[in-house]
Here is the input.
Amino acid sequence: MPYLYETHMHTCQGSACGVSTGAEQARFYKDQGYTGILITDHFTGGNTAVPRDLPWRERIDRFCSGYEDALITGQKIGLDVFFAWEQNYDGDEYLIYGPDKAWLLSHPDVEHWTRRRQLEEVHRAGGAVIQAHPFRHRDYIKYILLGLKYCDGIEVANTGNTPDADACARRYAEAYHLLTTAGSDNHNCEKADPAKLMGVWTEERLTSALDYARLILARGRIVPKIPAGRFDVDPAEAPRLVTYWVDEDNRDVVRIPTGRDFLRE
Here is the structure.
């Protein structure tokens, strides 16, 4: 497949944990042979770089500055640059593809939406929602929350994950016939290992983030770019993860098989 896109990455302008500017990221991915990138900085529920006490327009202007920086550079060097974002709830995070800056400006209540409302409104705008790194285990994540009812697919592989977390995601996707993507979750292009970069291949060149969302919603041909051997994990050596379904209609979350169980063939 001829067109390669990074689907998950951050800038220091939009994400507090970001190190590289949008322009630096754009030049890096151009050098790596990517057709384009989707900037997915951390939105208001996550590790955003934008102060939360500013007026909404100023917050969104600042939030989009990393994308706009990358876009200017991309136009000069021949790299497609599209806007997206990553929203966090309780450690479960979602990549939003399709809606643009104008849409955010006209929806100042977006930061207070439930997962269900987010999915409904993004769909209404023609966009799509992917759960990012669903089996990630970190000190700040108390347990794994799977938002199966609130997304259109999952990120089956993420460079920032451990291989066992991605292997769990693959088994989860197989068990529920989920659409899958992959992304590098790149925050710092100077330290990024080109051999570990991820993303997706598409048959046709995208013209916007909405194009990518339409592919997701139509379950079109999206081929994750994943390094060979990524899922070669011994289940006996994988950590046992407490895992729950997210159900906003029922306040009692339901426990499901552990992450280790998802590794079993």
Remarks:
- The helical segments are 22-31, 56-63, 65-77, 101-105, 115-124, 163-176, 209-217.
- Residues 171 and 262 are 6 Å apart (CA to CA).
- The longest strand covers residues 80-88.
- The mean pLDDT is 95.
